[in-house]
Amino acid sequence: MRIRVLLAAFVVCSVSACGGEQPAVETTEPPPVEPATEGAATAAEPQQPALESDDSPAGTGIIAAGSEFGDMLYDDSGQAIYLFDVESDGEPLCYEQCALAWPPVLTEGEPVGADGVVTELLGTVERTDGATQVTYNDWPLYFYAAEEPWEVKCHNVFGFGGLWLVVTPEGEAAPH
Q1: pLDDT tens across 81-120, in order?
Q2: Which of 1, 34, 52, 76 could cross-link with 61 by S-S, CB 3.0 to 4.6 Å?
Q3: What are the start and end residues of every segment in region (Disordered) (predicted)?
Q4: Nearest in space to 12 (alpha carbons), one of 1, 21, 4
Q5: Distance CA 166, CA 154 (A)
Q6: Rounded Cα–Cα distance for residues 103 and 131 (Å)
Q7: Are 33 and 17 in contact (CB under 8 A)?
Q8: What proportions of the chain, in percent to the nearest 5, are helix, strand and coil?
Q9: Which strand (E) or helix (H) includes residue 140?
Q10: How many helices (H) and strands (E) does the chain have?
């Protein structure tokens, strides 16, 4: 068990300094770990819009807010949301070490959208472990494990076999 914890920590640390302005290239060495205070894109902390609700159990809240890449999706706590470009068929492929670095956006109820989010594009997909992952325009959604709220470090970054890109409110990858 201790070896698994150490391996998980190594994987997260080895990809923790993506850098938002790097070209999409794969390296054989992990980038150096740097504090996120400089060089990382951060969005101004916008006022969180009220989420739509009904009588069903509330699921994960998704909001749209600005970033240096334009308007993009965040969860209701300000975590940046990404898509993995190799998942164009809507089926999650990021598991094990990939999911340690890129945790899926999970929900226990129907996801809830706020102003700026096209609620018709929100959906879910079942993961192989039985968890329910939020989708947007049929893209399974992910966080980056080494980011703070309102921080965007890994747009247009290659890892685990594909590009990681922030998601626009229109349901597409932001330009890269």
Answers
A1: 999 999 999 999 999 999 999 999 999 999 999 979 999 9
A2: 76
A3: 21-59
A4: 4
A5: 8
A6: 12
A7: yes
A8: 10, 30, 60
A9: strand 139-140
A10: 2, 11
